[in-house]
Design brief:
This protein has two helices and nine strands. It has helices spanning 53-57, 106-109, and strands at 3-8, 13-18, 30-33, 39-46, 71-77, 82-88, 92-94, 110-114, 117-120. The strands form three sheets. The chain has a five-stranded antiparallel sheet with strand order 6-5-4-3-7, with no helix packed on it. The protein has a two-stranded antiparallel sheet with strand order 1-2. Strands 8-9 form a two-stranded antiparallel ribbon. The chain has a single domain (3-124), classed as Hemimethylated DNA-binding domain (SH3 type barrels, Roll), CATH 2.30.30. It is 7% helix and 40% strand. It is mostly beta strands and 126 residues long. A hairpin with a 4-residue loop joins β5 and β6 (82-88).
Length: 126
């Protein structure tokens, strides 16, 4: 079984865990949450859960996602605000037809929105 080993700034430690699922989305993809009314653009991907234990335990047990799947960092938006979200793969759907994401940090990380996705700034790819 494939394993993921990486440092997580959110958890403040190294993460080493089996990976059950390959990432369905890529950096620059626009996605929406399956249950909650928000959407966003992917700017980072953790192959497995890599946030704090406190964050994980704050999710109600009946809706807590598995740890052994990709988790996505999103520049997210809803009708009221823009924010950064951390979401499990099981709770995301593609939303490339929904148009660009109106988040104030999009221009810092991405160039243009074309063909349903964003392109990472060239200065960040080196």
């Amino acid at each position: 079984m494939e394993r993921a080993s990486f440092f997580s700034p959110q958890a403040g430690r190294m993460i080493d865990a089996p990976v059950q699922t390959r990432a369905r989305f890529a950096i620059g993809d626009v996605v929406r949450h399956r249950l909650f009314d928000f959407r966003g653009v992917v700017f980072d991907i953790d192959p497995v859960f890599a946030n704090s234990e406190e964050w994980y335990q704050s999710i109600p047990a009946e809706s807590r996602p598995r740890r052994d799947q990709p988790f996505y960092h999103l520049l997210a938006e809803n009708e009221d605000s823009s924010y950064v979200a951390y979401v499990s793969q099981q709770n995301l759907l593609g939303d490339s037809e929904g148009g660009p994401v109106d988040h104030p940090s999009v221009d810092q990380l991405f160039e243009d929105f074309a063909e349903g996705r964003y392109r990472l700034r060239r200065s960040l790819t080196h």
